[in-house]
Amino acid sequence: MEPMADAAIEATGLTKRYASVTAVDDLSFRVREGAVTGFLGPNGAGKTTTLRMVLGLARPTAGSAAIEGRRYVDLDDPARTVGANLEVAGAHPGRSGRNHLRALAAMAGLPRSRVDEVLRLVELEDAADRRAGKYSLGMRQRLGLAATLLGDPRVLVLDEPANGLDPQGIRWLRDFLRGMAAEGRTVLVSSHVLAEVAQTVDDVVVIHRGRMVQQGTVHSLTAAGGGVVVRTPRTAALLAALERAGLRATETPDGALVVEGAEAAKVGDVAFAAGVPVHELSARSTTLEEAFLALTSDAPPPLPEAPA
Amino acid sequence: MTRLVAGELIKVRTTRTALGFAAAALLFVLLMVFISILAGHPRTIQNKQDSLNFGNITSFVLMLLGAVGATGEFRHRTLAPAVLIAPDRLRLFAARTAAYALTSLAVGVVLGIIAFAIGLPLLGGEAGPDLTGGDLTKIAVGGLIEIPLYTAIGVGFGTLVRNQVFAVVALLVWVSIGEPLVGLLGNDVDHYLIGSTMTRIGSGGDDQVSFGQAILVAVAWTVVVCAIGALVDRRRDVE
């Protein structure tokens, strides 16, 4: 892996085995400081296990992880360095949201006024004195985010924060993440639903079956799968011409050809040289969703879930 | 460490669990005082001591509170947020144990005052020798020593086993059935078990195990159970 300046989070050879199950296998990645990084992978890919190892909640079988250059357990002031939300609940059902945060604030040595601030930030003030057991899933997510923000940390680690949120909640979360990024925080957010993070992240780390599939900027991920869409009434002739030119094309159900990894000008030149009329010629960029599916669908089926 | 204890104390205070166990302990203490004096009419020093022995029953009930509180961290998945703030698991465990011990001590003080306030006037009307200041001190000191110790044992055992139902049932079965069965073996081992030590501290010791020895045994049990719980927990992943 190429060195990356200012890596806020760095995982090196992380491996986690549960008996015969390898949940995470020699995973290395870096998260840029000040960037929002999507940690993507289908269910069972090992995202949560990886994040738990990064946060010192699970011991790696091999490898290591560092936040701002130090293991989580060695951080001088974890609450002010990293805010993490790994559990949907994470609060005693009989304790109010406010008291849940008060306890955590006291443990971190934070003033009680900070509890009110984060409650306001996640728009949970009105429900703060209700017992957490009465909260909706969205409210519990907000409570988790409030706990994450208590120490005003520089790094945020959020595991599937959009799980169970309704469309309004997802929009709120998107705005929330954008706000965090605008403040210059590093955000690592995991998801198996690309639409939730596609509009928010700068970088992506894609894993499948506990292994790294791709890491890079969103642009690099989508550009790699780009191509050209071309329509012609003489599909067979154009396919043959493209093949002679060394280009790979596939026919879509509606009769168009998708030429992978080519530029529109090159395809146009090939068609012109072959005397094939062209009715449409357009560049096609892969969406993050498509790139994600392409990266993970070719891989073998996911491993069984690691034991809870 | 002070911060962690403060946070854990907020956690203990802000659910109804501790209040429920304290109420249960109060009920048992009241029943013990009223029944043993009004129905039992104690005439010996030993029987009169037993009728005020708030520490014994309170220790037992609050040991279960410690177990329920510790296992609740796993049951409700509230351990992870705390570990994220305090990654040193041993310190976190020590803070939780201290918080429950302090809470139980406060409950013990209140229940001791109630037991003495009700029991002493009632004992005044009973025949036989009166309890001396030394007798009363031994009951009070013994109770206030054993209550936090046994609550800590509950926290250590709960942390070790994690399953709430199992922890409570195991403690109940051990103290009420297991230890009496060990006593049937006919050796002196049963004099030094958890439940029998609890009884001896509350009653000021006896011919087999003195008051001071019983306290030392209780401290040893507390250290052993808590050390095992803490060390095993430290090696586990947080779910």
Give the uncertain stretches of chain B in residue-range form.
Answer: none
Provide the low-confidence segments of chain A as ranges: 1-5, 299-308
**Can you list the strand order of the major beta sheet of chain A?**
5-6-7-3-8-9
Can you count the beta strands of chain B? 0
Number of strands of chain A: 13
Helix content of chain A: 25-40%
| Overall pLDDT of chain A | 83
The most extensive interface, with participating residues per chain, is:
A-B, 36 and 28 residues
Q: Determine the oligomeric state from the structure.
A: heterodimer
Mean pLDDT value of chain B: 89
User: Which class do the helix and strand fractions of chain B yield?
Assistant: mainly alpha
DSSP helical segment count of chain A: 11
Please describe the biggest sheet of chain B, giving its number of strands, its sense, and whether it closes into a barrel: none
Major sheet details of chain A: 6 strands, mixed
Evaluate the radius of gyration of chain A.
Answer: 23 Å
Provide the structure class of chain A: alpha/beta
Tell me, briefly, the overall form of chain B.
globular
